[in-house]
Specification:
alpha+beta; Beta-Lactamase; Helix Hairpins; 4 domains; 5-stranded mixed β-sheet; about 50% helix
């Protein structure tokens, strides 16, 4: 009985000792488990925050690139490959994008300046697919690490090509508007004396025709012919002035039904003098029943004027400019202008629509005419193409949908 009691007591002691040990283990593992749960919760929060930041990173419509302290690409968003697929690959240097011709260009490179702790805003141009010139606004911001001794660079690149072209067009429009105001004033001043000249010439011609005694005078036998010339040329001058007023009239942006043939006749009144002076033969082949198109008349005048002036300037000496209008099976109105000028090289033909691109001599052109023409045609829902060979001339074709009757 005593042995049983002792054994029972020893078992209870052992059990208490064991329970105490087990309790300490339970506490230890409980703490470990709690830490693990906290770490898992923190990991989950980090993954959630990482996904959130990645979504924000990818939702930015600008190109975003992160460069490390050596100017090497670490990250880029989905926009960058659209414009710079190779230059912004991970591991590429900032030199490949911003100064490929120089090993180091701290004054021109926004990344190298940002790595020194300076926030930089700048613009640069780049030729992307098919040599198209694009304009970009760049902002480079330094990113400091926790120790503050090594900086990275966060670069935003915004494509502002359309905005820049609109600004250039606005500048050109304001310039033309100023010239138009001046031309309109001069035209009105000329119109008044021309009306008097034509009116008095008609009055004299009527008097000569009504009085037989005057017609019988041999000294006056040539007067009717002279007066008819004065009247005809006076009204021709008035027609030119009316065309000038129409061309210089500021557009209100509204569209209406317009006939290409009428627009061409107005513009030709303004450039015929140039054709005669430069010995350029203008050949017309206009379709009589040409359908109207829906367009801004002022914009269409500028398109025709730009293409006509471009054709004249391409011809050195005597030459030919062929102008034609027609329709096709797709109910599309076509306006074509072909010149016998110097032509455009294969290397340059894809660049002629770019602002400020010109093959003319310095002072002969700004390189805005075709860029503005292209934008106007596209804005009106049309299309413009060019075919050209060196020393064989060029052919520009404008296509616009015809009005449905």
């Amino acid at each position: 009985m005593d042995r049983l009691a002792v054994r029972t007591k020893m078992d209870e002691s052992s059990l208490e000792r064991l329970l105490g040990l087990e309790n300490s283990k339970i506490g230890f593992y409980g703490e470990v488990k709690q830490k693990i749960q906290e770490l898992e919760s923190a990991n989950l929060g980090l993954r959630s925050k990482s996904s959130e930041l990645q979504a924000m990173f990818d939702s930015i419509s600008d190109g975003v690139v992160v460069y490390d302290h050596n100017g090497i690409v670490q990250h880029r968003n989905h926009v960058c490959p659209k414009f710079f697929p190779q230059e912004t690959l991970a591991g590429c240097s900032c030199r490949e994008l911003f100064h490929p011709e120089l090993e180091s260009a701290p004054q021109q490179c926004p990344v190298e300046q940002a790595l020194t702790g300076v926030r930089v805003e700048m613009s640069f141009t780049s030729r992307i697919s098919k040599g198209k010139l694009r304009y970009f606004d760049v902002t480079a911001t330094p990113i400091e690490d926790v120790h503050g001794d090594r900086k990275r660079a966060l670069v935003f690149m915004r494509d502002v090509t359309e905005k820049r072209l609109s600004e250039l067009q606005l500048m050109q429009a304001e310039k033309l508007s100023s010239i138009g105001v001046l031309a309109a004033g001069v035209a009105h001043e000329i119109n008044n004396p021309l009306s008097s000249v034509a009116g008095y010439a008609e009055a004299l011609l009527r008097r000569l025709n009504e009085e037989d005694s005057l017609l019988a005078d041999p000294l006056l036998e040539d007067f009717p012919k002279y007066l008819q010339v004065i009247i005809r040329e006076s009204y021709r001058c008035k027609s030119i002035i009316d065309s000038l007023l129409s061309f210089s009239r500021k557009s209100d942006g509204s569209v209406s039904n317009v006939n290409f043939n009428d627009i061409l006749q107005e513009v030709l009144e303004l450039v015929r003098y140039k054709s005669r002076y430069e010995k350029v033969d203008i050949q017309l082949n206009l379709q009589n029943d040409l359908p109207d198109v829906t367009a801004d008349p002022s914009g269409l005048r500028q398109v025709c004027m730009n293409l006509l002036m471009n054709a004249h300037q391409a011809i050195k000496g005597a030459g030919v400019v062929e102008i034609s209008t027609s329709t096709d099976e797709q109910s599309t109105v076509q306006f074509q202008i072909r010149d016998s000028g110097c032509g455009i090289s294969a290397e340059s033909i894809d660049q002629i629509w770019d602002p400020f691109f010109t093959t003319k001599e310095v002072g002969k052109g700004l390189g805005l005419g075709l860029a503005v023409t292209y934008n106007i045609v596209k804005r009106l829902g049309g299309d413009i193409t060019v075919e050209s060979k060196i020393d064989k001339g060029s052919k520009f074709t404008v296509r616009m949908p015809a009005c449905q009757k």
